[in-house]
Design goal:
By secondary structure, the protein is of the alpha/beta class. The protein has one domain: Ribonuclease Z/Hydroxyacylglutathione hydrolase-like (Metallo-beta-lactamase, Chain A), CATH 3.60.15.10. It has seven helices and 16 strands. The chain has helices at residues 29-34, 68-77, 90-95, 161-170, 185-189, 198-208, 228-238; strands at residues 2-7, 10-15, 18-22, 53-57, 82-86, 103-106, 111-114, 118-124, 132-133, 136-137, 140-146, 149-153, 173-179, 210-216, 243-244, 252-254. It has a seven-stranded mixed β-sheet with strand order 6-5-4-3-2-1-16. Strand 5, helix 3 (90-95) and strand 6 form a beta-alpha-beta unit.
Length: 260
């Protein structure tokens, strides 16, 4: 099984000829639409390299997670691609040209069975606060179980005891992908929603249990970064022996085949 980092919160997981992606952000639409959030580095891959994705996961409706330009292009180039997003945001994918039959609207605490021995469990999360639209959560993390492997991709999330307990019940994990850019009033006042800090992220992963911790959401935007050295320092002081992987954009990591 191979994991590829595509920047920000974007990851591609490949296994047995099947490709699954999370929160890809390959365009520059945040900066083009808001005037802030300029990229620190270009997208590490082109759209043509992603046309064979089978399942495309989206955690919430912010442009660096639901990348309108990328979704529109892939919906046109790969009409068989299946998109999974929070139930309240299905209409946004339709607006991007995704066929209704290719959209799965995920609901909090719902189990979804996909092809290729992939099962999904959706967990509601705060992004500063919960986003609830017509009774359904609009910000979800995904627990993916795939042929004995178990992953948690947080999208954007603030850590609290409820999330920790939900993950404890769903784990342990092989890999937990967690944001570490943190939150503060100044960014919030400028419409930049916060995430867990590097300390909160590591405390969460230790509580839930995981073989690898993968930090994310700290390197792409010039106005919303964090020094990953703080993450590493805290890990070595508080959780010595915890495995982690810090990716460079475009870098790949292979997971060894698990014993039956």
């Amino acid at each position: 099984m191979k994991i590829i980092y595509e920047g920000q919160n974007g990851f591609l997981i490949q296994h047995n000829g099947v490709n699954v992606s999370f929160d890809l952000y390959l365009s520059n639409c945040v900066y083009e639409r808001t005037g802030s959030g300029k990229r620190n580095y270009p997208a590490p891959c082109g759209l043509e390299e992603l046309e064979d994705i089978m399942y495309y996961f989206i955690s919430h409706d912010h442009l660096d997670h639901l990348d309108v330009d990328t979704v529109q292009a892939l919906a046109k180039a790969a009409p068989g691609m299946i998109f999974i997003c929070p139930y309240p945001h299905m209409h946004l994918l339709k607006d991007c040209g995704v066929s209704e039959e290719n959209i799965i609207g995920a609901k909090a605490y719902q189990h979804i069975e996909l092809r290729n021995d992939i099962s999904v469990y959706a967990i509601p999360q705060k992004h500063e606060e919960y986003t609830v639209i017509d009774g359904e959560h609009g910000n979800l993390g995904y627990v993916l179980t795939w042929e004995g492997y178990k992953f948690y991709h947080a999208g954007d999330a603030v850590a609290d005891k409820k999330l920790a307990d939900d993950l404890k019940n769903a784990g342990p994990f092989d890999v937990m992908f967690v944001p570490i850019n943190g939150h503060d009033w100044k960014r919030f006042e400028n419409d930049t929603m916060g995430n867990m800090t590097y300390r909160e992220a590591l405390d969460l992963c230790d509580y839930a249990g995981t073989e690898y911790v993968v930090p994310m959401h700290y390197d792409l935007f010039d106005n919303n970064t964090e020094n990953p050295a703080f993450f590493v320092d805290y890990l070595y002081r508080e959780y010595p022996g915890q495995k982690f992987k810090m990716f460079m954009p475009g870098e790949k990591m292979a997971l060894e085949k698990k014993d039956d």
